[in-house]
Amino acid sequence: MSAPSTSSTPPAETPPPDTLPAATPSLMRRMACWLYEGMLMFGVVFIAGYLFGSLSQQRHALDHRHALQAFLFVVFGIYFTWFWAKGQTLAMKTWNIRVVDRAGHPISQPRALLRYVLSWLWFLPPLAAVAPFGLSGGETLVIVVGWVAVWAILARFHPAQQFWHDALAGTRLVHFEHRKK
Fold first, then answer.
1. Share in percent of the chain as helix, strand, coil (round to 5)
2. Contact of 101 with 111, CB cutoff 8 Å
3. Contact 160, 170 (CB under 8 A)
4. The whole model's pTM is what?
5. 105 vs 77: CA distance, rounded Å
6. How many beta carbons lie within 10 A of that of residue 142, not counting itself?
7. Which residues on adjacent β-strands are paired with residue 171?
8. Residues 159-179: pLDDT tens digits?
9. So where are the chain's domains?
């Protein structure tokens, strides 16, 4: 028979799962979520475009083109700011990804709005670079896709493997699974 331990050190306890630092999702998981988000945005674009066309009595697809683009920019901003402030979009829920601040807390709406504006770094640099050259749609697509690949790979150089727009916005993407009680 062994005597009970009289050691004064308490047994090591595992902290509750909510207090453990969340892992950064893999780059492939984040890009899959990004692509899925893009597919879901077709529905948002369709509804917003229909609303814009109806309200502006648009007769031709190119009528008020720049106003439509500005309207969609605002609609996307509302969509992403709203859902990111709640933690996840539908695509992020599907891929078990959540956006949090650097301390792991939910982000505020102003921080979500900042993240939205900075997320345009995925598209604006290549579009600004090709604008003066009048390239075809295919050539522009190749340059934009190439930039998206470069921008995604640059996350490998961030100390926490986060996207750089997240680093600039003070946010980060973490793996998160909702546990049923």
1. 60, 5, 35
2. yes
3. no
4. 0.78
5. 21
6. 14
7. 101
8. 888 999 999 999 999 998 766
9. 24-175
